[in-house]
Amino acid sequence: MEMEILLFAIALPSFVGVMFSYCGNLARKISVLTGFNGCALAATLLLSSMSQESLIQFASQNRWLWFPLTTFMIAVLTDACGLFKKIMPLRIYIACAVIILGAALLLIPSWDNLSRRLFLGVAVGGCATVLVLVVEKRKCFSTSLALSFSLIAPSVLAMLSGFAKLAIPLGAVAFCLGIISLIELVRQMRGRKCLGLGVGGGVVVASIAGLGSATGFGYDTTNIPIWIWVLSAAAPLGLCLGEFPGICSRKIPSACARICGCVILAVAAILMCVLFQNSSASSLYK
Amino acid sequence: MHLSSKSFTAITSLFVITISALALQSPGEKVAPTPTATNSTTSIQGQTSETTWKVDDTHSMGLFRVQHSGAGMFWGRFDDVSGTVTTNGSGAQGLAMNIAIDTNSVSSANKDLDGHLRSPDFFSVKEFPTMTFISTSSKKLDGNMWEVSGNLTVHGVTKPLTANVEMTGQSESVRGKKIGFEAVFTMDRGEFGMTYGIEKNAIGKNVRIIVALEAGAS
After folding, report:
1. Cβ of B124 under 8 Å from any chain A Cβ?
2. Cβ pairs bridging A and B (under 8 Å)
3. Structural domains in chain B?
4. Which of A72, B16, B201, B208 has its CA 20 to 30 A from that of B137?
5. Which of A54, A61, A161, A220 best tests the B interface by mutation, with the highest count of B CBs <10 A?
6. How near does any CA of chain B get to the CA of A30, in Å?
7. Is the CB of A161 less than 8 angstroms away from the CB of B119?
């Protein structure tokens, strides 16, 4: 079973995502589009989710599939806005609107209230805006690598809460992003210009972290506190550590700070969860 | 008081008609108009009226067994069982069950495994907090055994199912009348959308379920 999960739930979807990203980078050179990194990551998430659960009757039985489906919708619409590549504010406004729409469609337990979902959409939209600004400014492998570390947090939290079917697709996206960062590293070492994740990639990473954590929280029966889920959703914002005054003007410290920022937030979320679960287990036996 | 012959005949006829009507009434028919809560002091086999028994959730539980990794048998339990059992003595309608199990009460004596069982990988308790069995018909077998057919709803899917039900005992005390049942059946969890681990037989698809009920007369 483990080999089948590794192959069909992680390796294969990640390969498709990397191919999508590569094709998008080729498209950047020959067309007005700005790449398909958002669609690449969302396709990885969707394919990995579909290997875990059938899409048939997802609306009535397996409602957690709303998460990969809405993320894919966000990715397609955001990457399509690459047509307006010179009008960044418009692209960001459209991305935020699409994220809010995606959050409104997240019809999962604990998120039955529409106003709560809209609030979630606004919060994720805010994170996406910050992330896009940093991603567009820092087009190097360290950005992709840092974001891949940040997506480990919601994956591990989902696993700790017992929701393996959500943890595996999130892990697959983190793996895909790690491969993309390695490709970027090879490009950099060969002296070529890094293309970066683009607006679509930044928006989708924020959506996956935010909506994925919301999905994990919605289905959680182990009572992991909500602030731990919020911490895992905010892990990609660790990129901002590389933009602090004194660090942002220097390449290598900035790159290290970006990676450390994401790692620190991700590790903190995982550590807090483990400590919480151990303390609640020991209190049961007092 | 002297009765005229006409009066005497009328009273006698009325008396005979009443006795005849009582004698011709079939044993399975309800005497009282309400469909529930007619207590009987006779044994279940000798009942002439319906009795509805309310499940005592403290002394009732469900057990499930499934094969793990193609090797050992894993047992888990459900602690919260509720519902009603309706009994009467006539053959085809002898036993009716309306049982609900709180899926959040699933327990494996391992906290991490309990969390996994409650997640969408298995019972998805946040979406489907209850699994139910509502009987549609029953057939009396030898001894204290019944074959009860009905609809089982698990994970939002309803399928017909037949269970072997044994009446394990009856008693009457100062605490009231009690009756016990044990139902055994096997379900294919894949048919109910619970497919995690079925590939490569990591976790068996056939699940044996035993529901032990103790109910009191309501």
Report:
1. yes
2. 60
3. 44-217 (2.40.128.110)
4. B208
5. A61
6. 44
7. yes
pLDDT surpasses 50 at A16: yes
Tokens standing for residue A241:
């550590």
Task: Report chain A's C-alpha Rg in angstroms.
Answer: 18
Chain A CA closest to residue B122? A163
Count of other CB atoms within 10 angstroms of residue B102: 17
- Confidence (pLDDT) at A62: 85
- The pLDDT score that the predictor gives to residue A284 is 53
Answer whether residue A20 shows pLDDT above 90.
no
Determine the residue type at B84. T
Residue range B153-210, pLDDT digits in tens: 999 999 999 999 999 998 988 888 999 999 999 999 999 988 888 876 789 999 999 9
Give the whole-number percent of chain A exceeding pLDDT 70. 94
Please tell me the total count of domains within chain A.
Answer: 1
To the nearest whole Å, the CA of A221 is away from the closest chain B CA by 6
Residues of chain A contacting B155 with CB distance shorter than 8 Å: 61
